[in-house]
Amino acid sequence: RRCSLCHIPDLRGGDTTSLPGFENLTMGYNKYLRPYFGGEPVQIAMSLDIASISSISESDMDYTATIYLRQRWTDPRLVFHGNKSFTLDARLVELLWVPDTYIVESKKSFLHDVTVGNRLIRLFSNGTILYALRITTTVACNMDLSKYPMDTQTCRLQLESWGYDENDVIFTWLRGNDSVHGIEKLRLSQYTVERYYTLVSKSQQETGNYPRLILQFELRRNVLYFILETYVPSTLLVMLSWVSFWITLDSVPARTCIGVGAVLSMTTLMIGSRSSLSKTNCFIKAIDVYLGICFSFIFGALVEYAVAHYSSSQKRAAKAPQERPANELTKEMEEVNITNILSSSIASYKQKISFTSIEISSDNVNCSGLTMKTHEKIKRFLRNKMHRIIGYFTIQNPSNVDHYSKLLFPLFFMLVNVFYWAYYLYF
User: Fold this and answer.
1) Which of 9, 86, 221, 314 is in the most buried spot, having the most CB atoms within 10 Å?
2) Rounded CA gap, 108 and 157, in Å?
């Protein structure tokens, strides 16, 4: 190890002379021990450059970013004379102590190695070391999609020490919020970076308290794409269903085709909106609510025509002549008169035969007559009540159904839209 560090110029040529001031780099140096071992903790200052955020997945709830991570700390064992700084070969990192920083909630990460490992190490005369890495990582981001696609997501990039607790290392941002660069210049396909800020925290684990640095940024989704792709077509389908109100009730094929076609188109639009977020169906999203509202109005327009057409057919059936011939009524009246005459004759004849039989027969006749009259009264009363109840729900003029629907359907739809957009945009 002493030869490799003292004869760094050998990498550039055949000179075996060591650089001035580098003789003490290997004297008593142990890469397995941190600086100030057994004493005060090492101050590690960090800064970040966000090169890109390539993808943000709602279904997997993560994002993929490429970052330049820079770490600075002071190792008094590497102090040398002079005011210069030297950039060393990245392979010499294996000979030095470096922090065990890792990315919290990272699903997968890799260090770029084209054409060589993308690492930088720079040594200053006061023993300060600058260690830079180029990393691409996929980090989990807990998302609330209840307001999708008018949502704002808050994601984090957290850096923490794996093995050294707060008694060994202390993490700090180099310049606060100014330690992060590049994120304000990002251009994302569906999102706009609203704001970002840095935090310093601690992670409490069973093995101790570990220092943690947090970069938190808010992403607002661009809703224009969804307005053109989903909201406008669904609104136009609702308006298309209103066209049937201006078509006469007798045009059954035209009105039926408009209603059924709008329902099927709306169903296809709802399925298409869910296909891109197949793994997040547990969320009742804002776009699902709007599509459900549009589907309800389209289905309501189809039901409206069914009610109006049924009422119209019932009214035409009621106007049809249902009078019976006059001779039938005459015959019934004659039969009734003959029956009454025969009944009275038989009753008088029975009175002449026996006084007892007269009482019995008269009692039977009176009881049966009273029973028949009571049943008829009850039936007549119930029949009148049923006709009255049905009359409340009977549409007297079916043409008024379309007339009122022309006004009520657009009015209710506009009112629902006002509440919908006010709630999801401002609450």
Assistant:
1) 221
2) 13
| Bridging pattern class, strands 119-124 and 101-104 | unpaired
Residue 54 tokens read as: 């390539």
Give the amino acid at 299.
F
**By the 8 A CB rule, do 44 and 99 touch?**
yes
Question: Do 125 and 274 share a domain, yes or no?
Answer: no
Query: What CATH number is attached to the domain comprising 203?
Result: 2.70.170.10
- Would you put residue 38 in left (φ > 0), alpha (ψ -120 to 50) or beta? left
Q: Phi and psi for 268 in degrees, rounded to 5?
A: -60, -40
Expressed as residue numbers, the domain containing 76 is 26-221
Q: Is residue 49 part of a domain?
A: yes
Q: Is the dihedral of CA 328, 334, 339, 340 positive or negative?
A: positive
pLDDT digits (tens, 9 = 90+) for 100-144: 999 999 999 999 988 888 999 999 988 899 999 999 999 999 999
Asked if 146 and 423 touch (Cβ cutoff 8 Å), the reply is no
pLDDT, tens digit (0-9, with 9 covering 90-100), for 31-67? 899 999 989 999 999 999 999 998 899 888 999 999 9
* Count of domains observed in the chain: 2
The tens digit of pLDDT for each residue in 228-268 reads 999 999 999 999 999 999 998 888 899 999 999 999 999 99
Cα–Cα distance measured from residue 55 to residue 32, given in angstroms and rounded to the nearest whole number? 38
User: Are the CB atoms for 123 and 78 separated by under 8 Å?
Assistant: yes
What is the enclosing helix (H) or strand (E) of 170? Answer: strand 169-173
Neighbours of 73 (CB within 10 A): 21
Instruction: Note whether 180 and 309 are same-domain residues.
Output: no
Q: Are residues 292 and 235 in the same domain?
A: yes
**422: which residues sit within 8 A by CB, 6+ positions away?**
none
Considering only CA atoms, which of 212, 185, 179 is closest in space to residue 197?
Answer: 179
CA distance 213 to 205: 16
Residue 155 clears pLDDT 60, i.e. is over it: yes
pLDDT tens digits for 171-205? 999 998 999 999 988 999 889 999 999 999 999 99
Closest CA to 290 of 266, 306, 313, 265: 266
How many C-beta atoms lie closer than 10 Å to residue 155's C-beta? 23
The identity of residue 168, as a single letter, is: D
Residues in the chain: 427
pLDDT tens for 340-396 read 555 665 565 555 545 444 444 444 445 555 456 677 777 777 777 676 665 555 566
